[in-house]
Amino acid sequence: MDWNPEKAPTAKEIAAKFRKDIADGVYPTGSQLPGAKGLARHLHVGLMTVQSAYKQLAEDGLVVGRQGSGTYVLDPKKGDPTAQETSLGLRELQDQLVHLTSRVSELQGRVEQLEAARPGPSDENQ
């Protein structure tokens, strides 16, 4: 693995790295992800951190763990999206969520400005 982060990554960061790699075709359908123990040593994290990252990927439908064998990029059933397509879709959803969150924050600021500029009940009676 050529990933050498400056500080020990979290499970969420490890999962995000593998989602990106799967989407980019670094790990094609059917390929095996690095062994959890070796990856934990390489990244200077606990084994449970890597296992948690792999669990997140499995919950996303991108990989499957095989007891005693390793973790593999899912080979989808006929008609189902590939792990790469799913990963790209997740990335698009994440981008949309960031955009929507930004817009909601912007709208919230506008509402607060409008409410501050609106005359209060005591102002209307004078």
Written description of the protein model:
By secondary structure, the chain is mostly helical. Helices cover 58% and strands 6% of the residues. It has a two-stranded antiparallel ribbon. A hairpin with a 3-residue loop joins strand 1 and strand 2 (70-73). The chain starts with 10 loop residues before the first helix and ends with a helix.
Distance N terminus to C terminus? 73 Å
Order of strands, widest sheet: 1-2
The percentage helix is 55-70%
Radius of gyration: 22 Å
Count of individual helical segments: 5
The low-confidence runs, each spanning 5 or more residues with pLDDT under 50, are none
Order of SSEs: HHHEEHH
List the helices and strands and how they pair.
Layout (H helix, E strand, L loop, with lengths): L10 H13 L12 H8 L3 H13 L3 E4 L3 E4 L9 H35 L3 H4 L2
Antiparallel strand pairs: 1-2
Helix pairs in contact: 1-3, 1-4, 2-3
Can you summarize this structure?
With 126 residues, this protein is mainly alpha-helical. The protein has helices at residues 11-23, 36-43, 47-59, 83-117, 121-124; strands at residues 63-66, 70-73.
Summarize this structure as a short list of keywords or feature phrases.
elongated; 126 residues; two-stranded antiparallel ribbon; 6% strand; mainly alpha
